[in-house]
Specification:
The protein is mainly α. Helix content is 43%, strand content 0%. The relative contact order is 0.13.
Length: 149
């Protein structure tokens, strides 16, 4: 099936979501700041959609599922996700501590996730080339003796 062709599914079905921005132009040092920001937002939306599809399907979405033409409901979903990403990504300030009682634990988990993503070379490849890799917590990153919380 080619990109953009319809598959048989209900017009009110949201998941799996098709790719919101199929294919990206190269982003080189020649892009203006505004263009680079717009491209980054498209990529974040694309990654968010892929992650939501993975959670919904329990597997990686197929090219056929990603290549469908979005329905009106899916376009509304993209618009809502874009607005959430704009709101959540607007504050560039640093937070001295993570709020709440479980803040340090959440901060440590996010730090672990960042280190895992930085070390996963497979995540820099396309969807179909992805090889599964299990997440393993690095106990030495936050020793329990030093960080009992």
């Amino acid at each position: 099936m080619r990109f953009g062709e319809m598959t048989k599914c209900s017009p009110t079905t949201i998941f799996p979501l098709p790719a919101p921005h199929p294919g990206f132009c190269s982003s080189g040092p020649g892009l203006r700041r505004r263009d680079l920001s717009a491209l980054a937002m498209k990529r974040v939306l694309h990654i968010t959609v892929f992650c939501l599809n993975y959670f919904y399907l329990g597997r990686f979405p197929s090219q056929e599922e990603l290549g469908r033409r979005p329905s009106a409901n899916q376009l509304e979903c993209f618009a809502r996700l874009r607005s959430l990403l704009v709101v959540c990504g607007a504050d560039g300030g640093a937070y001295p501590t993570v709020p709440g009682r479980s803040g340090p634990e959440l901060g440590a988990a996010i730090f672990q996730l960042e280190r895992f993503l930085e070390g996963s070379h497979e995540l820099n490849q396309s969807y179909v080339q992805h090889k599964s890799r299990r997440f393993a917590e690095n106990k030495g990153l936050f020793p329990e003796e030093k960080y009992p919380q």
